[in-house]
Amino acid sequence: MRVLLFTGKGGVGKTTASAATATFAAGVGRKTLVVSTDPAHSLADAFAVPLGSEPTEVDTGLYGMQVDAQLRFEQTWREVQSYLLTVLARAGVDTMQAEELTVLPGAEEVLALLEVRNQVASGRWDVVIVDCAPTAETLRLLALPEALGWYVERLFPMQRRVVRSVRPVLSRVAGLPAPPERLFEAVERLHRMLTEVRTVLTDPATASVRLVLTPEAVVVAEARRTLTSLSLYGYRVDGVLANRVFPAGGSDPWRAGWVAAQSAQLAQVRADFAPLPVHIAPYRAAEPVGVAALGAFAAEAYGETDPLGLAAATDLVEVTRTESGFELAIALPLADRAAVDLSCTGDELVLTVGAHRRVLTLPSALRRCDVTGARLRAGRLHVAFAPNPELWMR
Ligand SMILES: Nc1ncnc2c1ncn2[C@@H]1O[C@H](COP(=O)(O)OP(=O)(O)O)[C@@H](O)[C@H]1O
Ligand SMILES: [Mg+2]
Fold this sequence. Notes:
The protein is of the alpha/beta class and 394 residues long. It folds into two domains: 2-69 and 105-302, 3-Layer(aba) Sandwich (Rossmann fold); 317-392, Sandwich (Immunoglobulin-like), CATH 2.60.40.790. It has twelve helices and 15 strands. The chain has helices at 14-27, 43-47, 71-91, 95-102, 107-122, 135-173, 181-202, 217-232, 253-273, 291-302, 364-367, 389-392; strands spanning 2-7, 32-36, 56-59, 62-66, 127-131, 207-213, 237-245, 278-282, 317-322, 325-331, 340-345, 348-353, 356-361, 369-377, 380-387. The protein has an eight-stranded mixed β-sheet with strand order 3-4-2-5-1-6-7-8, sandwiched between helices. It has a four-stranded antiparallel β-sheet with strand order 9-10-15-14. Strands 11-12-13 form a three-stranded antiparallel β-sheet. Helix 9 (253-273) links the parallel strand 7 and strand 8. Helix 1 crosses helix 10, helix 3 (71-91) runs antiparallel to helix 4 and helix 6 (135-173) crosses helix 8. The longest helix is centred in the middle third of the chain and has 39 residues, at 135-173. The chain is globular, with a radius of gyration of 23 Å. Bound molecules: adenosine-5'-diphosphate and magnesium ion. Magnesium ion binds at residues 14-15, 38, 42, 131.
């Protein structure tokens, strides 16, 4: 079993790369499903066959599907969303968590991810490839189980108790809208399912993310930030696919200019993203549409390397003993020192990188410690902890 996600900026070739890699996988005899979580469904266009919300066979052993949000789910989700926001605003939940929850993604993307988990769990597939929405949306989506988790674990049990005992009083006194019981259940169920989604997508033995980019400064800059954020959320990136690379040759100065500019960008990409492999997909004379063209795209991009290969796992978060206590190290490749922020609140470590935030629940030994320092070195953030005698003796 192998789960492979493709993400990147809009229009760089995520759908093409997903469809091409799936075509390769099916070609070597692995039963493969490619799912699009991008509401802008273009997977059907890439294969030039109609696709529905059930797996449709495109070629031997190659299936595609595009998930469409069902009306019913959309309504529930909208209700959940607006309830969470109202509660947060009125309950005076500090802005950090409010921010986290205001970025709830749309119903379509959530439903698509749930479908990915169902398909993986079905045992029907050797390979499941996910054609993700553009970067920002994907990241919101991947952070969702944690954001919801915070809510479910903290606010919900407390509120639910209150609601059960003093429901009529609550709305008047606290100014909180008392939520219907079924809403609690909906959020809890969603949280459970999304936690499973996250488990499937971050499984070190089977899952990885591939970043698609084109060799242009703006696109590369975004890909760098994405690499950091994906690591922050615990997703493993196992390669970069540089698409639409102009082949060298000819005497046209316009083309020579592009070739030179792109090769400078590519040199930078190789240096920045090392040791990740950088696969190169040339700019083709026509859109790679249909199984034959997609197969050729994959063959050229991956060459001798195995498109389904998974580099040896490295621990994204690691705790070690030190002379003065403990050290927690977390992989944050390419992180900008100035954008990294850290705070410790009792049993949680809140790590912020730019607009992205992760709440790490600390192992019990570290809860009885103080953070004594942090530094960013070689793509990892090292946080030093020293035992706090008062907490330790309890
Ligand atoms: N290497 C390539 N050469 C030529 N056209 C390409 C190449 N890669 C992608 N395209 C075309 O570029 C457009 C955008 O690609 P697509 O895979 O849909 O991007 P995304 O999914 O990232 O938005 C499509 O029309 C696709 O056929
Ligand atoms: Mg696409």
